[in-house]
Write a structure and sequence with these properties.
By secondary structure, this protein is mostly helical. The chain contains 11 helices and no strands. It is globular. The N and C termini lie far apart (51 Å). 21% of the residues are buried.
Length: 194
C-alpha cells in the first residue's frame, strides 16, 4: 500500500511540472547552444566548417531547410567555399587547446544532461516549428556529448527518428559522434546538413 501511495505521489509530482512555452523552450535551447559553443566558438578550437557554412547560408538568405533542398552540386559548392575559409583559421598552442577543452568538457556534461531532459519531455526540438528567433542547434549539443551519455542518446534518437521528430541530417551527425567520429563518414554528413 505504501509503495502504491508513493508511486501515486511521484506520478502527480512528475505531471505537475510546468511545461515550457515555445518561447521559453527557444530561449533555453539558445542558451544551451551558446554554452556548447562557448570555448569552441570563441576560441575556434574545433574545425569551424559548420560555423562558416552557417555564415554562408545567412549571407545568401538561406535557411537550413532551403540549403538542404539545394541540388547536391550547389551544396558541394558551398561546402568547398566553407572548407577553404575554415582552413585559414589561426591555430592555438596545444597547451591552450587542452586548457580550453577541459573547461568546455565540464560544460558539455551539463548541456547534454539538460538537452536529454528536454528531449524526454518535448521530443527532439524542431527549431523551425518552434519559430525560434535566436539561433540554436540541438544536434551540436548531442554531437559534443561526453561518452558517458552515448548509449542514452542513441536510444533517444532512435525513438525520435521513429516518431519523425528528428531530421536525417541531425540524426546522421549525432550518430557519427556517438559512433566514434569516423572521418570518412563526416564528408557525407557535411553534404546532408539540414
Amino acid at each position: 500500500m505504501k509503495k502504491l501511495l508513493l508511486l501515486f505521489i511521484l506520478f502527480i509530482a512528475c505531471n505537475s511540472v510546468k511545461k515550457m512555452t515555445d518561447t521559453e523552450l527557444c530561449t533555453e535551447l539558445s542558451n544551451l547552444y551558446f554554452q556548447d559553443q562557448y570555448y569552441r566558438g570563441l576560441q575556434e578550437m574545433e574545425d569551424p566548417f559548420f560555423s562558416v557554412l552557417d555564415s554562408l547560408m545567412t549571407a545568401n538568405n538561406l535557411s537550413r531547410s532551403e540549403y538542404a533542398n539545394l541540388p547536391e552540386k550547389e551544396q558541394l559548392a558551398f561546402g568547398k567555399i566553407a572548407r577553404k575559409i575554415a582552413d585559414k583559421k589561426p591555430s592555438l598552442s596545444k597547451r591552450e587547446q587542452d586548457s580550453l577543452m577541459n573547461l568546455q568538457k565540464e560544460i558539455d556534461f551539463k548541456t547534454t544532461k539538460s538537452l536529454l531532459q528536454i528531449v524526454e519531455k518535448y521530443g527532439f526540438p524542431d527549431i523551425e516549428k518552434l519559430q525560434c528567433d535566436s539561433y540554436s542547434a540541438p544536434f551540436l549539443i548531442f554531437g559534443h556529448a561526453p561518452k558517458k551519455y552515448w548509449k542514452e542518446i542513441e536510444v533517444l534518437i532512435e525513438r525520435e527518428k521513429k516518431a519523425g521528430r528528428i531530421t536525417q541530417g541531425d540524426y546522421n551527425y549525432i550518430k557519427w559522434h556517438i559512433g566514434g567520429r569516423k572521418d570518412e563518414e563526416i564528408k557525407q554528413i557535411q553534404i546532408q546538413v539540414n
